[in-house]
Amino acid sequence: MLIDTHTHLDAPEFDDDREETIARALEQGVSRMINIGFNRDTIPTTMKLAESYDFIYAAVGWHPQDAITMREGDLDWIAQLCEHEKVVAIGEIGLDYYWDTSPKDVQQDVFRKQIGLARSLGMPICIHNRDAHEDVVRILREEKASEIGGVLHSFSGSWEIAKMCLDLGFHLSFGGPITFKNAKTPKEVLIKTPMDRLLIETDSPYLTPHPYRGKRNESANVRLVAEAAAELKGVSVEEIAEITTRNALERFGIPSISE
Question: What is a single molecular function from GO for this protein (predicted)?
Fold first, then answer.
């Protein structure tokens, strides 16, 4: 069994075949999926998915690209949603210095506020980090994020950055890029990441793994990520599936299949 710890099944790319896409994931042994609601539009659609399917859970938060759109009351809205039994994390939150859609100071402020909320609620956080490694680590330290932990989703930093995040108690999640021929850094980091801190994801409909790169990604493809991780770690796919599933269940407080 597998868990896709980061997906966007509510994205418009799935409007024509969402049920079929979810069915394909189940057929590939994907027993749980965590859908990410990251702004005013996707939080409601994420909640609808989580309430419609027993095996889909939700993370809700404000994406750094949308930080400038956050208004008074939105943090209270997220806090209220975190009382829902299907909400397992606050995210994706963080910093994105690649896309120039929100000023850096606004991103950092929204990031800090959401870490503070997560600490007050005892919720793990799901972090988006693009070209902002040093600032992400600095803010995690300053805001005492080690008290709650969480996951660095689609991890793309160096081993030096990875080690700092691991030292803060975070998990590292890997997706399609570990299947790319020239993606040297994420492969090296995955090899060094302790098994008990390893998670896998798709970030669908984005970051489609080889051999389907360039096409729409979907949660069923987390099996391809598991196969690549197994090869890099030198273990069986079954072992990767078992370990990453256990890690995800424990990290996000999701009931096991037998419960």
Answer: hydrolase activity
CA distance 28 to 9: 16
- Quote the tokens at residue 87: 């909400």
Among 62, 40, 59, CA closest to 109 = 62
Q: Output the pLDDT for position 258.
A: 58
Query: Between helices 74-81 and 104-121, what is the axis angle to 10°?
Result: 30
**Of 61, 67, 70, 77, residue with least CA distance to 148:** 61
Question: What's the average pLDDT block by block, 10 residues per block, for the chain (259 residues)?
Answer: 97 98 97 98 98 98 98 97 98 95 97 98 98 98 98 97 98 98 96 98 97 97 98 98 98 82
189 φ/ψ angles, rounded to the nearest 5 degrees = -70, -40
Give me the residue spans of the domains in the chain: 2-252
Q: Which residues contact 78 (CB under 8 A, 6 or more apart)?
A: 43, 60, 61, 62, 90, 114, 117
Report CA-CA distances (Å) from 178 to 17, 122, 215, 216, 226: 27, 31, 16, 17, 10
Rounded CA-CA distance 238/215 in Å is 26
Q: Do 59 and 97 touch, CB atoms closer than 8 A?
A: no
For the whole prediction, is pTM greater than 0.70?
A: yes
The C-alpha R_g of the chain, in whole angstroms, comes to 17
Q: What is the Cβ-side half-sphere exposure of residue 49, based on CA atoms within 13 angstroms?
A: 29
Q: At what angle do helices 42-52 and 74-81 cross, to 10 degrees?
A: 10
- CATH 3.20.20.140 for the 2-252 domain, yes or no: yes
pLDDT at 256: 84
